[in-house]
Amino acid sequence: MRQSASFLNRSRIMTSLPTNAGPLRQRMIDDMRMRQLAPKTQDTYLHIVREFARFLGRSPDTATVEDLRR
């Protein structure tokens, strides 16, 4: 039985994610998988949140309305 490219891509992203992901990151990953987002979309969303955390200098779940406006 031949597996689809989409399944293979999802397998790639699942194995490339760190196993020590924090609870917020893990929840985001789980939610994206449940919604069956494309692997590239998942990669992009994780990258954006990582950059936002870098901008804030702290976890994104502590962001205020003012942080979002900046």
Note down, in words, how this protein is organized:
- The chain has 70 residues and is mostly helical.
- It has one domain (5-69).
- The protein is 67% helix and 0% strand.
- It has helices at residues 5-16, 23-34, 39-56, 65-69.
- It starts with a helix and ends with a helix.
Rough shape? Answer: elongated
Total domains, how many? 1
Radius of gyration: 14 Å
Number of helices: 4
Distance between the termini: 51 Å
Estimated helix fraction: 55-70%
Low-confidence stretches: none
| Overall residue-averaged pLDDT value | 82
N-to-C series of helices and strands = HHHH
Residues in β-strands, percent? under 5%
Count of DSSP E strands?
A: 0
Structural class: mainly alpha
Largest sheet: none
Organism: Caballeronia zhejiangensis
InterPro entries: CB (IPR044068), Integrase_recombinase_N (IPR010998), Integrase_SAM-like_N (IPR004107)
Keywords: DNA integration, DNA-binding
Protein name: Core-binding (CB) domain-containing protein
Main traits of this protein?
70 residues, DNA binding, 4 helices, mainly alpha, CB, 67% helix
SSE order and pairing:
Layout: H1 5-16, H2 23-34, H3 39-56, H4 65-69
Nutshell version of this structure?
The protein is an all-alpha fold and 70 residues long. It is 67% helix and 0% strand.
